[in-house]
Design goal:
Layout lengths: L2 E6 L4 H11 L4 E6 L9 H11 L3 E4 L6 H6 L1 H24 L3 E7 L39 E2 L10 H16 L2 E7 L2 E2 L12 H15 L2 E5 L7 E2 H13 L5 E4 L2 E2 L4 H12 L4 E5 L15 E2 L7 E3 H13 L1
Parallel strand pairs: 1-2, 1-3, 3-4, 4-6, 5-13, 6-10, 7-9, 8-12, 11-14
C-alpha cells in the first residue's frame, strides 16, 4: 500500500531532507509544496487544495524563524504569529478532517533555561531528597546545563518562542493524530527557498576561511548550551515515528552532544583541519533584541537518542566537499 505524504515547506533545509527521506521509499508517494504551490496563510485556499489532494500524512516544515526581527518589529511579530501559531492550528484541523497524520516542528526556545519543572513543581518520580543527579531538586553545581524532557514546563523568553509554544498548543487542541517534534540548531544542506537562513556551520566555515587568510581570531559565544540537529537525521526519525505508530504528542529529536556555540565552532575547525584561532566570549558580547535561554538541552524520554552531532557534521562536511 502506498501512502500519500504532503510536505509543506519542501524547499527549506528540513523540507528538502524530508522529501529525500520519504521519496527514496517506494511505500510513499511524495507531494512537495513550497510557497509557489501553496499559501498556508490563506486558510480557505489551503484547505481546498489540501482536501483535493487528500494526503494520508501532512508534514508542516514551514516556520518563521527571524528571532530578533520578531522581537523588535511588530509587523514581523504578526508574521510569526501567523506562521508559527495560526497556521499549525489550521493545518491540524485540516489533517483531522481528512483523518491524516499531522507532523509539526517546534523549538528548544519554548524553554527559559532555568531548572526544569512540571506543573510548576518538581517532576514526576522525584523523591524530593535533592539526589545528586536529579534535574528537579539536585544540587545546582552538578549541572553545567539544564536538560529538558517533553513534559517539562515551557516558559518562552521571547516573542518568537511564545509563538512556537502557542503553535504547539494549537496543534494539541485541534489535532487528532499528530506529532509535535522539537528540535534545536538545525543544520544541513542549505535551503533553496528565497531568503532562507544559513546554518551556523556554513556561516562559521566561511568566517574561518577569512580569519585564516587575514590572520585574525573568530569570536563565538561560549554560552547558550543546547544540541544541534542534522536535518537528514531528523527527517529519518520523523519517518520512523510515523511508521512506528507512536502515540500522539510532543517529541524531542536532536543529535547527541550538548555544546555551546564556541565549542561547536572549535569542533568544526578541528574536523576541517583548519588552524583557526577561536576566542570564547559571553552572550553579552553580541547584544540581541530577543533573549535566549542560557541552557536549552533537549532530552528524549520517548525515543532512542540520535547519533552524536560530531559524527553527523563529519558526514555533512564530506558531502559538501564532493
Amino acid at each position: 500500500m502506498t501512502h500519500n505524504v504532503l510536505i509543506i515547506g519542501a524547499q527549506g533545509m528540513l523540507g528538502q531532507a524530508l522529501v529525500a527521506a520519504f521519496g527514496e521509499d517506494e511505500a510513499y508517494h511524495v507531494t512537495a509544496w513550497d510557497r509557489a504551490e501553496i499559501d498556508v496563510t490563506d486558510t480557505p485556499a489551503a484547505r481546498e487544495k489540501i482536501t483535493a489532494l487528500w494526503p494520508d500524512i501532512i508534514i508542516n516544515a514551514t516556520a518563521y524563524n527571524a528571532v530578533d526581527a520578531c522581537e523588535e518589529d511588530d509587523a514581523e511579530y504578526a508574521k510569526a504569529q501567523a506562521l508559527n501559531t495560526r497556521v499549525p492550528g489550521e493545518l491540524a484541523k485540516i489533517a483531522a478532517s481528512l483523518q491524516a497524520t499531522f507532523v509539526h516542528y517546534s523549538t528548544d526556545y519554548v524553554f527559559d533555561g532555568q531548572r526544569p519543572r512540571v506543573n510548576g513543581r518538581r517532576g514526576p518520580g522525584c523523591c524530593g531528597q535533592k539526589c545528586q543527579k536529579c534535574r528537579y531538586m539536585g544540587p545546582e553545581e552538578n549541572f553545567p546545563y539544564w536538560p529538558y524532557c517533553e513534559n517539562d514546563d515551557a516558559n518562552p523568553l521571547s516573542r518568537y518562542g511564545q509563538t512556537k509554544r502557542d503553535g504547539e498548543r494549537a496543534v494539541e487542541k485541534y489535532g487528532s493524530r499528530y506529532y509535535i517534534i522539537r528540535l534545536s540548531k538545525l543544520f544541513g544542506a542549505p535551503a533553496t527557498a528565497p531568503g532562507a537562513k544559513r546554518s551556523f556551520f556554513d556561516v562559521m566555515r566561511d568566517v574561518g576561511v577569512k580569519a585564516q587568510r587575514d590572520g585574525t581570531c573568530v569570536t563565538a559565544v561560549d554560552g547558550e548550551t543546547s544540541c544541534f540537529t542534522y536535518a537528514p537525521d531528523l527527517a529519518v526519525e520523523t519517518k520512523a515515528i510515523i511508521e512506528d505508530a507512536a502515540p500522539s504528542g510532543i517529541y524531542h529529536v536532536v543529535n547527541s552532544g550538548p555544546c555551546t556555540w564556541y565549542e561547536a565552532a572549535k569542533t568544526l575547525y578541528e574536523i576541517l583541519g583548519m588552524d583557526v584561532c577561536v576566542k570564547p566570549v559571553p552572550p553579552s558580547a553580541f547584544p540581541r533584541p530577543a533573549q535566549r535561554p542560557a541552557s536549552s538541552v533537549l532530552i528524549s524520554t520517548k525515543r532512542s537518542p540520535l547519533r552524536d552531532y560530531r559524527e553527523a557534521l563529519r558526514e555533512y562536511l564530506v558531502q559538501t566537499r564532493a
